[in-house]
Write a structure and sequence with these properties.
Blueprint (H helix, E strand, L loop, with lengths): L2 H25 L7 H22 L6 H5 L7 H24 L1 H8 L11 H6 L7 E7 L4 E12 L4 E12 L2 E15 L4 E7 L3
Antiparallel strand pairs: 1-2, 1-5, 2-3, 3-4
Helix pairs in contact: 1-2, 1-4, 2-4
């Protein structure tokens, strides 16, 4: 089998993998994958999706695809594999975002790690947080923000939070304050802290 034929089959194998990886990256709140992680993810989605298609078609294994010296291109199989890759990526995204794998491992005593990328996301992903007040203290600017969390985002570069019904105080003189319906903050934990209280605490 020529190198060009092998390369073309690899490209076709990677098409569903690329689709699955892009969807997974869009649905899971993690930092951008490095090249090695991207290639591994594409390969896994491609191999699993094509393997499922081959099994459904009654073929013994994916090895038939590479061992056949005759060139063949089945667009229907590529489409089916891409659909399966989409479904797999959604399932993986749900499992990742819900933290089910790490929850099970913690229950088994295997690890104490959480599924999120950092403690900030782990805390804000707790179910009761969306029903709670959040207090953010900015010690550098002597300000305190109190409001409800509407949205949040985090990666290695920044921590962002979107508050509703926010009251802003001067910490050294709490009598001075103002209210605003919507507020965006980019947090700097070198000089800021975040506190969460339930209900009217």
């Amino acid at each position: 089998m020529s190198i060009s034929l092998f390369t073309m089959r690899l490209i076709l194998l990677f098409v569903p993998g690329i689709i699955g990886t892009i969807i997974n990256d869009a649905l899971v709140d993690v930092s951008k994958k490095e090249n090695r992680e991207f290639i591994i993810s594409v390969t896994l989605y491609g191999v699993f999706s094509h393997t499922i298609v081959y099994l459904l078609c009654g073929k013994s294994s994916l090895l038939e695809y590479f061992n056949n010296d005759a060139w063949s291109f089945n667009a229907v199989e590529i489409v089916y594999a891409s659909i399966i890759a989409v479904v797999l990526s959604i399932i993986v995204s749900v499992v990742t975002n819900k933290g089910w794998l790490y929850w099970m491992l913690r229950k088994c005593g295997v690890t104490k790690k959480f599924s999120e990328e950092n403690v900030f996301l782990s805390m804000l992903n707790e179910k009761e947080v969306l029903e709670s007040w959040v207090i953010i203290r900015d010690f550098r600017n002597d300000l305190m923000y109190q409001g409800f969390i509407h949205k949040y985002h985090s990666n290695k570069e920044c921590y962002e939070i979107y508050l509703l019904d926010t009251t802003v105080y001067i910490m050294s003189d709490p009598e001075i304050n103002y209210e605003i319906s919507k507020m965006y903050l980019q947090l700097n934990f070198e000089c800021m802290s975040i506190e969460i209280s339930k209900g009217d605490e």
